[in-house]
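Milestone M4 deliverable, item 7.
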Amino acid sequence: MDFDAPFFLAGRWERSSRALDVRNPWNGALVGRTWLADDTQVEAAVSAAAAAADAMRGLPLHERAAVLARASAALARRREEVGRILAGEAGKPIRDALAEVDRAAATLQVSGEEARRLGGEVIPMDLAPHGKGRIAILRRFPLGPVAAISPFNFPLNLSAHKLGPAVAAGDPVVLKPATKTPLTGLILASVLEEAGLPAGGLSVLPMPRQLGDRLVTDERFKLLTFTGSSAVGWAMKARAGKKKVVLELGGNAGVIIDESADVPFAVKRVAAGGFAYAGQSCISVQRVLVHEGVYARFAGQLVERVGSLVVGDPLDPATDVGPMIDEGEADRIDAWVREAVAEGARVLTGGRRLGPCAYAPTVLEGVKEDAKVCAQEVFAPLVALYPFSRFDDALASVNRSRYGLQAGVFTGNLQHALQAYDRLETGGVIINDVPTYRIDHMPYGGVKDSGTGREGPRYAIEEMTEPKLLVINTEVG
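Output delivered:
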């Protein structure tokens, strides 16, 4: 497969002197080629976004919605082609890649629907005596140019979560896709161009990190939206100046399975939530706290199920788990597992390399709480099991993490479900499913080191717009 993809600079498809070959991490095969934008081209994109602010602001809501609906339909028509490119560049199993194409098309569609609902509210001014004779309305207006930086792990859908709401809000946007997986972001640019987006309203530019830093600090941008690691995200926020910042960062997702849980169902969902896309998701299951009364049964069934997962070529429909994104990531998780074992952890299954970038789906127990595979974001096909006797202790254990994105609780006890919702320090609590569960229109984001702000089209549009109040005195003279 050889997909030639110039980058998209404010309505023009351009190349530079620096070619970027994109290779499948499973076998090194060439998936496609694009180019890294240079300093002059990045400046041209930023200037074009600033110049397009008025045109995007003036684009009527029905036209924004129509552009996004057409882009969604175009992406859906190219499902098989885009899915194979995505599977290749990200090393994502083909059925998961096709599901991501479907999700991205839905994200664009819902963004367009939310554009049609971008209204306001009437404020009752006569709640106060001196408000008599006055009426007030509140509407949301576009912020202006948006700088967007997307990650390698969901390069199509997480880019759609930035571009769709920006178009719906009436904001021009410059997107920096991950250099490991830039091709599907460029496909998004092509479907939005085909759908009739104004030329200056979008640029999608792969670029070196030092040029990406320009997007963070440039004052012409009114909002920075970044999805990636916690360390990088918070450092960006510190340099971002006065612009608004939305951060969707790392996680350390905890799952609690109490004594009333449906164990076979929990096993099935934890196996899916911990090992899909080789665990390279910020809401991948990482820590599983299991009531001691069901621990042995759960652990035995999980090990059996995880041991049967097929690791292989992402383009093979039989593959359950593909490679890590690169050899360095496989090196990292191998070192973390070895360190945990040296400190007393036990490998129940996996715990070994299967190739340069592939790592066996791994289940550990007896892991110390300060071990890297517990305390940090593992971002790999690994879960660690911990028994507990008191539900309060399980809640406290989840909360001891510096991350707070989503948590899952399997229970048949309504009181436990409500206690978890009240006390878990996370952006979302998923009852009777894994924290990996996400539907694209729901509010999604975290607390603590996991970020600030929320995504999901409606909620991202709120981040990308500014409320403005109008007060009219009707008793004049």
